[in-house]
Amino acid sequence: MPTGIVVDVTPDPTPRGPSVARAEIRDSEAQRRLGLLPPGVLPTRAARWVADGVDDASVHELAEALTTKDDAREALLARAAADLGLGFASVREARAHHGQRVVESMTAASAPTDALGFSNGFTDTIEESVRDSIARLFKPRG
Questions:
Q1: Which of 38, 50, 39, 44 is closest to 10 using CA atoms?
Q2: pLDDT at site 115
Q3: Residue 55: other Cβ atoms inside 10 A
Q4: How far apart are CA 121 and CA 116, in angstroms?
Q5: What is the pLDDT of residue 11?
Q6: Is there a contact between 80 and 25 (Cβ–Cβ < 8 Å)?
Q7: Which of 82, 77, 97, 83 is CA-nearest to residue 30?
Q8: What integer is the mean pLDDT of 59-64?
Q9: So what's the pLDDT on residue 1?
Q10: How many Å apart are CA 34 and CA 119, to the nearest integer?
Q11: Which of 41, 46, 66, 99 could bond to 62 as cystine, CB 3.0-4.6 Å?
């Protein structure tokens, strides 16, 4: 079962609009509150949010925070979310939002293809592991 939503931030410079960026900021803030935010992703995400039209000092600072530590970046995200009215009153509220996003991703139009890809990858990994185990147990004679 997925533990978190990973927001795919591609290098495509085409602005998607501030509403898309605001939704991603809220998703990222939920991940931060729940301890699910992948390390090192915030400057790239923030640069995309700026390109999408979000004009907030904390987001701009976060986009340029390549050399700062993740704790400082997360503090900037928290401040940006609060400034933009995208924060959460409690961890419970963040968990509910995140859970809803996970369910949405599992029921998206791409979900069957995503599940098939995951299943095939998992099957390949198991098959490789079994082959390695058999090769170690039954070494060729001679």
A1: 44
A2: 64
A3: 9
A4: 8
A5: 53
A6: yes
A7: 97
A8: 92
A9: 44
A10: 27
A11: 46
- Within 13 Å, how many C-alpha atoms sit on residue 139's CB side? 2
Inter-residue contact 95 to 34 (CB < 8 Å): yes
Q: Which long-range contacts (CB under 8 A, 24 or more apart) does 10-17 make?
A: 13/51, 15/51, 15/52, 15/53, 16/52, 17/52, 17/53
DSSP string for 93-136: HHHHHHHHHHHHHHTSTTHHHHHHHHHHHHHHHHHHHHHHHHHH
Instruction: Give me the DSSP letters along 32-86.
Output: HHHT-PPTT-HHHHHHHHHHTT---HHHHHHHT-SSS-HHHHHHHHHHHHHHTT-
> DSSP state, 15?
-
Q: Are 81 and 56 a contacting pair, CB within 8 Å?
A: no
pLDDT, average across residues 119-126 = 71
Q: Residue 46 — pLDDT band, cuts 50, 70, 90? A: very high
Rg of the chain (C-alpha set): 20
Question: For residues 50 and 62, what is the distance between their CA atoms, to the nearest angstrom?
Answer: 10
